[in-house]
Structure formats: C-alpha cells, structure tokens
Here is the input.
Amino acid sequence: MTLFLVAVVFWLTAWAANEWLVRLHPETALSRRAINLLVPLLFGLALLVLWQGITRGFDIPRVLLPAPSEIWERITNSLPILSADFRQTFLKSVIPGYIMGCGLGFLVAILIDRSPFLKRGLLPIGNFVSALPIIGIAPIMVMWFGFDWQSKAAVVVVMTFFPMLVNTVQGLSAASSMERDLMRTYATTWWQEMTALRLPAAAPFIFNALKINSTLALIGAIVAEFFGTPIVGMGFRISAEIGRMNVDMVWAEIAVAALAGSAFYGAVALAERYVTFWHPSVRARTI
Here is the structure.
C-alpha cells in the first residue's frame, strides 16, 4: 500500500507540473518545443509510476497485469527474440505492404480523377471494403499467399489502399473553382494543373492518409500473423505466449509494437511538416 500512495503522490505532482507547463507562454521556439516534448514525457512517466504502484501495492498477480519493471526486465532479457519478431513483422510485412497499398491507392485516385464513372463506381466499393473486418480478411490472404510475409503484406495492402484512395480523391477536389478557372485561363494542361495546383492542395489529405495508414499497417500485419506464420513475428509471439500465460512477454511485444508504430507515425508527421510547410495548418503550429 505504501508503494501505491507514493505512486499517487508522484502522479499528483506530475499533474500539477504539467498544468503549470501548459500555461507557460515561452517566447522562443526552442522553449516551446522543449515544453511540448516535456509534457507528454512527464505524463507518460507518471502513468508508469502509477501502474507500478498499483500492481506492487495491491499485489496484482503477474498473469493478470505485470508491473512495468517486470516488462522492462523481459524486454532486456529477450532482445534477440524481440529483434527477430520486429524484423519479420515490421520490415518484411508492414513496410512493403504500406508502400504498395499507399502507392496503389494514390495512382488509382489519379485515374479516378480522370473518369467520373470510376469515381462514382469505385468510391462506394472502397467505403464498403474499408468496413470489412480484418479478422475475416486475414485468413483468406493466408490461404491465397501462403504463411510467409507475403500474406501479411497483402493484408496491409488491403487495409491501406482505400484510406489513401478516398483521402486523395477528396484532396484533389480541395482546390477552389476560382483557382482552377485561373489555371485554365493560362491554357494549362491537365498535368500542369495537377502538379502546380491540385496535388499541392491535396497534400494535407494525402499525408493524413499516410499517418492513418502508418498505424493501420502495423495492426493489420500483427493480426494477420495470428492465422499462420513462420515461428517468428509479433503476432505469432503474442498468440503463442498468451497460450503459455507468459503475459510479461506479451506486454513486451506490445511495447515494441507501440514504439515502432509511434516512431513510424512521427516520421510521417515530420515529413508532412517539411513537405507542406507552406500550409496554414503547419504554419500555425510553428508560430
């Protein structure tokens, strides 16, 4: 109980510190970035301390909820296994599927823009397919493409294709009619109008799809590994270890997946900031 009380005190102290930090109005950009980084770090640390205090203070069984210290110990003692699972799931399944799914979605959106028939026909199908449960798609892809990474990449393609398609089509129509009429008065071709006006206007929509897909791709690959995979991979390890009641290893895999997904999302968000630096939404965050 003492550990629980200490954790609660730390939580309240961290909460008060965060309340003080978010009310500051620093003048320099460096100070603002430091505060923006410190607030979530302090909040996350407070959550971990509270988690540790609850599990230790109330003697919660390890099989129900291991303490953060136990999860960290498992991570440090299982680095070769976690590294192999990360390479199998993230590098062999997520990245290829993400590139293919987003790339195909973007190219098909460009084709749809040239054809009103395809725009009216494919978009409803895209909304329908995006609503299909991954738990039903994954075993079918395993039957079609086998148990190796190809079937997981196929699941990722299905999950990332239609968000990119829908967002890109929506973004291509973001340019106003006045801007498009101005381009036509200069006798621009369709390709010139696309590259000079419509694609830049659609960039925020495209990056929004890329950020959404960065998390969907990892979820899809992990779930697909539940239905058949070589004896390696995050999804395989979670399924196997939960059957052995090794919950700390399951949480270790979850932690690795969360860090990988967050880093992937952050990389896409950083690329968006540099590519669309001119957009009002990006400029507002830098002021």
Summary: The chain has two domains: 2-60, 74-286. Residues 2-60 form one domain. DSSP finds twelve helices and no strands in the chain.
